[in-house]
Design a protein that fits this description.
The complex is a heterodimer of chains A (456) and B (192). Chain A has three domains: 47 residues, no CATH class; 295 residues, Cytochrome-c3 Hydrogenase, chain B; 61 residues, no CATH class. Chain A is an alpha+beta fold and 456 residues long. In chain A, helix 4 runs antiparallel to helix 5. Helix content of chain A is 44%, strand content 13%. Chain B is an alpha/beta fold and 192 residues long. Chain B has a domain of 131 residues: 2-Layer Sandwich (Beta Polymerase, domain 2), CATH 3.30.460. Chain B contains three helices and seven strands. In chain B, the strands form two sheets. In chain B, strands 1-2-5-4-3 form a five-stranded mixed β-sheet, covered by helices on one side. In chain B, a hairpin with a 6-residue loop joins strand 1 and strand 2. The N and C termini of chain B lie far apart (51 Å). Classes of the chains: A alpha+beta (456), B alpha/beta (192).
C-alpha cells in the first residue's frame, strides 16, 4: 500500500514527545461493514489522517454478461445490482432499452412501476437507517425497521412472486398486473410502516447518544458532493435539491405531488433525517398513484367462467379445435398470474416485436405462437435499432443511469450502469479524514454502500 | 438550453474541436477531438450558460466488433428492426460508430439549468490515451480508474491510475471485445 508508516510527526519538540501514525486495516470482512470492502486508515491516536478505500470484492462482470444475453435476459442480473431495491434497477434498465427501441408503455404500466419502485425505495431506506442505527447500539430500531421492511416485501411478493430477486419488469411492460385487491394490503402495510417510523423517530431523533454521534460527523459541502458526482439522499443532505424524479421526470412522476427533503449541514444526522422524510414522501407517492392509476380490466370470475388448464388448451389447439376454448382463460403456473389476455393490454406495449403474447394467444392461435417464438428463439428477441442512449432514474442511493449501445443485434453491444454509490464511495476518504475512528461507523452506514451495484 | 442550442453553442465556441454531433432519442451528443477535451470540459463546467457541474459518468465503448458479430443462430437475419415510436423524437438519426476502436463517453448534467450533454471522444487503439478530468472533478478519479481497468485506456495526468474492480496481477482488460467471456485466470492469494 502507498501509505508510509515511518512518518514521524513531532508533537511538542520541547517535551521531546513524538507521535507515530498507525495503520489500521478494516475489512474486507468486518462486522461493521455491510458488504465486502477494505478501508486502510492511517491513524493519529484515534483520529483518521488518511484513508484508502479498496473495492471490487463483489465484481461479477455485470456489464460483460449483459453483452452476452438478450435484452430481457439482463433482467435477473439487474436484480442483483442493488438487491435491496431491485425493482428500481429493473425499471431503469427497461426504460433505457425502451428509449433505445423507441416505444412507450401503457399508462397503467407506468403507474405500476412507480408504485413498486417507491415501495422499494422505502425498503432500501429502512434497511440503511435500521442498519446504521444498529451499529450505534440501537438494536431495537433495527428490528422494528426490518419488521416494517417485511410488510413491504410482502407487498412486493404479492405482485411479483418474489421478495428480492424479482425480475418483474420486461422490455415494453411488466410481467403481470397488480392483484385486484392491492390497495387494501398496501394501506395496511403503510399503516404499520408509519407506526414503525414514528416509533423509530421517537427512539432516535432526540436520542442524545444517537444525535451526538451523528451530528457533525462525515460532513461534506454541496460543492464537494457535486464535484464527486454524489447524487440522491446523500447530496440532498447537503442542501442541493437535485432529484431525478423532480428535475428530469420520467414515467408519471410529473403528475404526482411530493416534496424533496433537503438538509443543511451535510452530516450523518441530516442524511438520517432526509431518509426518514423521503420514506414518508414515497408513501405519499404510492397513495396518490394508487388513487390515480387507470383501472385494469374487469376480470371474469375464474370460478364461474371457463378456466382451462394450459396443457389441455395446447392439446385442443394441436388438433385444430381452437373454437372449443375461444374466450377462455388458460390456467398457467402461479408466477404468470396477472398476465392473462384481458390484462395484457394494460401491462404491455402494443409492439408485438418486443413483448411476449398472452398465454391464451400463444396456445390458441398461430399468430400468437409465432410471436412467442420470434421472441424466445435463440438469436431472436428484442432488436433495437443501432444507436446509443442514456437513461437515468432516481435509485434509492441516487441517480442510477443505464447507458445502452446497440448494433442492431439481439443482445446489447454495451450496457453501462452508472451506480449511485460508486461516486459516494470515491468520496469516502474525504468524508472520513479528520474524524475519529468511531465516526467511521455512522459515516459508512449513511453511505449505504451496496456491494452489488458498487462492484457490479 | 435545449439539445440543439447546447450543441450549437459548443460548436460555435469550439469550431475546430467538434467532429460531429447528434441528438439521437433526445440525448444531446457532441463528438470531439481528443486534444481539446479538457478545454471543453472546463468551459462546460465554468461557463454560466452551461454550468455542467455534475460529471455523471465516464465510460468507454470498444467498437471493434460493432455490426460484425457472428450471428448466433441460423435464422437470425430474419429479425426485424423495430421502428421508432412517434412519441420519441427521432428526427436526428444516429450517425453510426466512429472510425476508431474506442470511444470514451462522458455524461454531464447541470443541476442549475437541468440539461444533459454527452461528450464522445474517439480514441485510437494504438495510443489509447486521453487526458484526465480528475483535476476538474475529483469524482473522475475512480471512474477513470474503472475505464482503465476495464478497457486499458490510459488517462494522462491521472494521480493514481491503477486497477479498481479487478485485482493487481489480473491480465488483460475484461470489457474489451477480444477478451473472451469464458476466459479463466488463476485465483491468487492476498497481495499484502
Amino acid at each position: 500500500m502507498p501509505i508510509e508508516t515511518t512518518n514521524l510527526t513531532p508533537l511538542d519538540e520541547t517535551a521531546g514527545l513524538e507521535t507515530r501514525d498507525m495503520l489500521l486495516n478494516i475489512g474486507p470482512a468486518h462486522p461493521a461493514m455491510h458488504g465486502i470492502i477494505r478501508i486502510v486508515t492511517k491513524l493519529d491516536g484515534e483520529r483518521i489522517h488518511e484513508a484508502e478505500v479498496e473495492i471490487g470484492y463483489l465484481h461479477r462482470g455485470f456489464e460483460k454478461m449483459a453483452e452476452t444475453v438478450d435484452f430481457n435476459g439482463v433482467m435477473p442480473y439487474t436484480d442483483r445490482l442493488n438487491y435491496v431495491s431491485p425493482l428500481i434497477n429493473n425499471m431503469g434498465y427497461c426504460m433505457a432499452v425502451e428509449k433505445l427501441v423507441g416505444i412507450t408503455v401503457p399508462e397503467r404500466c407506468h403507474y405500476i412501476r412507480v408504485i413498486l419502485s417507491e415501495i422499494s425505495r422505502i425498503s432500501d431506506h429502512l434497511t440503511c437507517v435500521g442498519a446504521s442505527a444498529m451499529e450505534l447500539g440501537a438494536f431495537t430500531v433495527f428490528l422494528y425497521m426490518i419488521k416494517a421492511r417485511e410488510y413491504l416485501w410482502d407487498l412486493v411478493e404479492k405482485v411479483t412472486g418474489a421478495r428480492m430477486t424479482v425480475s418483474y419488469c420486461r422490455v415494453g411492460g411488466v410481467k403481470a398486473d397488480l392483484p385486484s385487491d392491492f390497495a387494501e394490503p398496501c394501506r395496511k402495510a403503510f399503516e404499520e410502516t408509519r407506526k414503525v417510523l414514528s416509533e423509530s423517530d421517537a427512539l432516535l431523533t432526540r436520542n442524545r447518544i444517537f444525535v451526538d454521534r451523528m451530528t457533525g460527523t462525515g460532513v461534506i459541502s454541496a460543492e464537494d458532493a457535486i464535484a464527486y458526482g454524489i447524487t440522491g439522499p446523500f447530496l440532498r443532505s447537503t442542501g442541493s435539491d437535485y432529484d431525478v424524479r423532480k428535475d428530469c421526470p420520467y414515467a408519471v412522476y410529473d403528475r404526482l405531488s411530493f416534496e424533496v427533503p433537503v438538509g443543511m449541514r451535510g452530516d450523518n444526522m441530516d442524511r438520517f433525517l432526509v431518509r426518514m422524510e423521503e420514506m414518508e414522501q414515497s408513501m405519499r407517492i404510492v397513495e396518490q398513484a394508487l388513487r390515480d392509476i387507470p383501472p385494469g380490466p374487469v376480470l371474469v370470475n375464474t370460478q364461474t367462467g371457463h378456466p382451462i388448464p394450459a396443457a389441455e388448451m395446447v392439446d385442443l389447439a394441436k388438433v385444430g379445435n381452437i373454437n372449443a376454448f375461444s374466450g377462455d382463460s388458460a390456467v398457467t403456473c402461479p408466477t404468470l398470474e396477472g398476465s392473462s389476455r384481458s390484462q395484457h393490454p394494460s401491462i404491455a406495449t402494443e409492439e408485438k416485436r418486443v413483448f411476449l403474447p398472452a398465454k391464451e394467444d400463444t396456445y390458441g392461435n398461430i399468430e400468437g405462437l409465432m410471436q412467442q417464438f420470434k421472441l424466445v428463439m435463440f438469436g431472436h428477441g428484442v432488436r433495437p435499432p443501432k444507436g446509443e442512449v442514456y437513461f437515468p432514474v432516481e435509485g434509492a442511493n441516487g441517480e442510477l443511469g443505464f447507458y445502452v449501445v446497440s448494433d442492431g443485434a439481439g443482445n446489447a453491444y454495451r450496457v453501462r450502469v452508472r451506480p449511485p454509490c460508486f461516486a459516494i464511495m470515491s468520496a469516502l476518504p474525504k468524508l472520513l479524514t479528520g474524524d475519529m475512528i468511531a465516526d467511521m461507523i455512522p459515516t459508512f452506514g449513511s453511505v449505504n454502500m451496496i456491494g452489488g451495484e458498487l462492484d457490479r | 438550453m435545449n439539445n440543439s442550442e447546447l450543441i450549437e453553442s459548443v460548436k460555435s465556441h469550439f469550431p475546430d474541436a467538434v467532429l460531429s454531433s447528434h441528438s439521437y432519442r433526445g440525448d444531446a451528443t457532441v463528438t470531439l477531438r481528443e486534444k481539446s477535451l479538457v478545454e471543453i470540459a472546463r468551459f462546460l463546467k465554468e461557463d454560466p450558460a452551461f454550468q455542467m457541474n455534475l460529471l455523471v459518468d465516464v465510460s468507454a465503448v470498444d467498437y471493434s466488433t460493432f455490426g460484425k458479430r457472428r450471428a448466433p443462430a441460423f435464422f437470425t437475419s430474419s429479425g426485424v428492426a423495430v421502428g421508432p415510436d412517434s412519441q420519441i423524437p427521432d428526427e436526428d438519426p444516429w450517425p453510426g460508430p466512429p472510425n476508431t476502436r474506442f470511444t470514451v463517453v462522458y455524461h454531464f448534467y447541470s443541476i442549475a439549468h437541468k440539461h444533459r450533454l454527452r461528450l464522445v471522444v474517439p480514441v485510437e487503439e494504438s495510443t489509447a490515451e486521453v487526458d484526465s478530468l480528475s483535476s476538474l472533478w475529483p469524482g473522475a478519479n475512480w471512474l477513470e480508474r474503472e475505464v482503465w481497468d476495464m478497457f486499458g485506456i490510459t488517462f494522462r495526468g491521472h494521480p493514481d491510475l491503477k486497477r479498481i474492480l479487478m485485482y493487481e496481477g489480473f491480465e488483460g482488460h475484461p470489457l474489451r471485445k477480444d477478451y473472451a467471456v469464458k476466459r479463466r485466470q488463476p485465483l491468487i492469494g492476498p497481495v499484502n
